[in-house]
Amino acid sequence: MLWAALRFPDLSLQLHLRGGASCGPMVVQEASHRPRVLSCNEAAQKAGIKPGMLVSAAHAVTPQLHIRTRDPAREATALTGIATWVTQFTPTVSLASPNEILIEISGCLRLFGGLRPLSGRLRAGLAELGYRASVVLAPNPTAALLLARDGIDTSIGDRHELRRTLARLRLTRLDQPAQTVAMLAHLGVHTIGDWLSLPRDGLARRFGQGMLDEIDRALGLLPDPRPPFSAPARYSASLELPAPVRETEPLLFAAKRLVLELTGHLAMRQIGVMRLKLELGHAHHAATPVVLGLSAPSRDAGHLVTLLREKLCTVQLPEAVETLTLVAGETRPLGSHNQTLFADGRPSREARWRIIEHLRARLGVEAVHGLETFPDHRPERAFRKTLPGHARDTSSDLHRPLWLLARPAKLRPDESLPGTQRPMRLMEGPERVESGWWDDFDVKRDYFVARDGAGTKVWLFRERPDGQDWFVHGIFA
To answer: How does pLDDT run across 137-167, given as a tens digit for each residue?
Structure first.
């Protein structure tokens, strides 16, 4: 087996920086009455701020310092989101600690082309999500965690090499009580190699079996089961911006990272999303919703980001945006389809849907729609608007045009079509329509098909029983 440990040493800071470019020196402090700096960004380090420094001293060094307080609940939520994204590579995922994830990858190496391509995709994908992590590969999960905690970004597959490498690690990397590690250090035992050189029976009697078992698991001498991670059924994630944003265009950078995380969740479940809601959070105003509806299920990150860009361009912000929350609504399984052997130059079904969705995102939902027939003899009510792709499969009357005038234009059969000088002649008819007495829209008409001198085919009618006036109601394509 081959396990990968993903360790995020400064996860608390990354949560505040992944929403966009840094706004200047920033630190994350612990929650206490005399807080200290837990982590700081590059700008703060250049100003002379270091982890462990009192926040008051750091603020004295840089008065423009941005201070954030660590939020363990947010870190746990973020780690769950990362673990959900990782499940698109392998189903064997486990949360190891507040900032560590374990994944078993030996079963999916062939699917992704080997160890190096898979490792590269993991690192690149985490960077796109806005996270920095050390990725360590080892034959068992405990060894991978210990190496990751020591900052060793490597891949070890040989058991003898693993033993030599682990022997150099300090005991502080183990999940053991600090008091036990301090007692061993007082006796001159600082590394795993020092521990292994001592008699096992005496160590077990004095320090218990826990440390022996942990080291044996790291060496592959004991089984190392891990609790499986269960991804949430619905995707919902939030992202805090480094600084308030007053324009919609910069929001797309942060929204893209949430969309990429979402697509990992969708890939794991082999589904596509039909409805998305991006909530723009404000400090003193209700959140601004940006709702995205799709005509067909999709998990293409590029397509979803393009639609969000079009939607955001139409949003008027009541005040600056401080947080983003992406919620996946309706989801559906992705349908399979056959590929064509020879390209015929026509756009694929997916390409046609994307054009429709792009237009709806830019022009509005009501501006782009489909038509479906309705069981009513009156032409004005024989068609109804519907969402693209939701029209019922009904056959239309070939003697009726799809293009109806908004209001019938008055005309005589020996006159020309309005706006032209071309006489018309009757070709087909009459088609008698008598309906609507029950809803105050009673229609009694005889319809005819006519053609003018230029070949334009139109649809005419006159009122029954003794109507003398003629009206143009539609034009055939």
So the answer is: 999 999 999 999 988 777 887 788 999 999 9
Q: Which pairing describes strands 26-29 and 66-69: parallel, antiparallel, or unpaired?
A: parallel
CATH number of 3-24+64-219, picked from 2.40.37.10, 3.30.70.270, 3.40.1280.10, 3.40.50.300: 3.30.70.270
The model's pTM is 0.74
Is the distance from CB of 134 to CB of 43 less than 8 angstroms?
A: no
Cα–Cα distance, 239 to 20 (Å, whole number): 10
Residues, the chain, total? 477
Nearest to 278, CA basis, from 309, 307, 255: 255
Q: Are 463 and 390 in contact (CB under 8 A)?
A: no
Q: Which CATH number fits domain 236-333: 3.30.390.60, 3.40.50.300, 3.30.1490.100, 3.40.50.10490?
A: 3.30.1490.100
First to last CA, the chain: 66
The model's pLDDT over 212-242, given as tens digits with 9 standing for 90+, comes to 999 999 999 999 999 999 988 899 999 988 8
